[in-house]
Amino acid sequence: MFTLYIFFGIVYQLLLLGLHRLASVPHKLHLSSKHKPVSIILPFRNEAMHLNQCLESILSNKYPVFEILCVDDHSTDKSCLIVRQIQERFPQFKIRLLSNPGEGKKAAVSYALENSAYELILTTDADCVVSTNWIEAMAFGLQEHTQLVAGPVMSIDKGGFFHGFQQVDWASIGLVTRMGIYTGKPLMCSAANMLYRKSAFQQVEGYTGNEQVLSGDDEFLLKKINTCFGPSAIAFQAEPEALVFTEPIENWRKLFQQRIRWASKWRAHGFNYHVLAALFPTLVQMGFFFLFIFPFLSPEFWWLACLLLAMKVYVERFVLGALLQSYGISQPPKVWLLTSLVHPVYVVAVGIQTFFRKIEWKGRKSFR
User: Fold this and answer.
1) Which of 91, 82, 92 is nearest to 44 (CA)?
2) Tell me, what DSSP letter sits at residue 241?
3) What is the pTM (predicted TM-score) of this model?
C-alpha cells in the first residue's frame, strides 16, 4: 500500500507538471489586422444587482463597432429597468433590450443571435465584469479558419479562504480548458467569455438536441463546432486583456449546487472521451480522499499522508499558481494548504451528488 501511494503521488506530480509545460508553450494568438463588428449577447434572469456594473465595464471598451443585445429571460426583479437606464445614460451606444420568447438561457441566446446585426458573436454573463480591451482581445483572436475562441474566466477575490479556494478551482478549470484545446480534444469552455461566428452556430444548428439540459450552452456548442469543423477551428485566447471576472459564489452550499449542475452534463454526452476525461481527476482526488482517512485507521499512515500532502501542495501551488500569476493574481500559502486538504472532499462530494441530486437553476428544474 505504501509503495502504491508513493507511485500514485509521483504520477500526480508528473501529470500536473506535464499540463503546466503544455500550458506554458507559447500558444498566443496572432492579432488580426481588422476590427470586425461584434454582437455581444448578454442573457439575464433576475440580475438587477449585477447588470449595471457588467454593462458599464463592456461600454468602457473602445472597440470601434459593437452592439449589445440584452436578453431578458423572464426576470421578476428590476433587471429590465436597469438596462433601460443604461440605454438612457449611454445613447451613443447600440444597446438593445430583447424579451426571450422561449424559456431558458439557450433559448435567450438563440433568439438574440437571430436578431444580431453582425457575424461575430461574443457572449458573457450578467454577473461578470470585463477589461477595457476585452472585445478587442477576443475579436482579434479569431483567425480566418477559426470558428470559436474560448477566453479565460476567474472569480473575484473578496478575501478569505473561501474566495481563494474558488480562484484556485477556477485556475484548475482554466488549465483543463487550455489542455483540451491545445491538444485538439476540447473538453470545456465558458459562455462567460466565448466568441464564435454566427454562421458556425447556424451550421451546427445551435443547441438543437440538448435543449432539455439547463446549462451547457457553452460546452455543447464547443463540441458541435469541434465535430463539424475540426479541432483546428477552436482556439484559446490566453491574453490577460481577455480575462473576464465573475462574481464569486456566496457560500459552500451554492458552490456545490453550481458545480453539481456543471458536472451533471456528462449524462448528455454519453460514455465517451469527455466522460473519461472528467472521471479521471475525480478518481485521483478520491485517492487523496482515502489517503487522508487511512491515518485514523492505522497510525503508520501518518508519515505517508504528510509526505504526499506536502508533494500535493507544492506541485499545485507551482502549476496553478503560475497560471494565476499570469493574470496578476496570487494566493497566500495558507490558501494552498487548505485547498489541498479540502479539494479531494469537495470533488468526491460533487461527484457522488451528481448521480442523485435533482438539478435546479434560477428557479427551474432540469428535465433529465
Assistant:
1) 82
2) G
3) 0.87
pLDDT string in tens for the chain (368-residue length): 556 556 566 777 777 787 777 666 655 555 554 689 999 999 999 999 999 999 999 999 999 999 999 999 999 999 999 999 999 999 999 999 999 999 889 999 999 999 999 999 999 999 999 999 999 999 988 888 899 999 999 999 999 999 999 999 999 999 989 988 998 989 889 999 999 999 999 999 999 876 666 566 788 899 999 999 999 999 999 999 999 999 999 999 899 888 888 776 655 555 455 566 666 667 777 777 777 776 666 777 777 778 888 888 999 999 999 999 999 999 999 999 999 989 888 888 887 777 665 655 555 555 44
* CA 229 from centre of chain: 22
- Residue 50 neighbours by CB distance under 10 Å: 19
C-alpha closest to that of 296 among 309, 284, 305:
305
Specify the amino acid at residue 82. I
**Angle 349-368-272 from CA coordinates, rounded to 5°:** 70
Alpha carbon 258 to its chain's center: 12
Report yes or no: 103 and 21 within 8 Å, Cβ to Cβ.
Answer: no
DSSP of 125-186, one letter per residue? -TTEEE-TTHHHHHHHT--TT--EEE--EEE---SSHHHHHHHHHHHHHHHHHHHHHHTT--
Please tell me the distance from the alpha carbon of residue 28 to that of residue 315, in angstroms, as a whole number: 24
Q: What is the DSSP letter of 342?
A: H
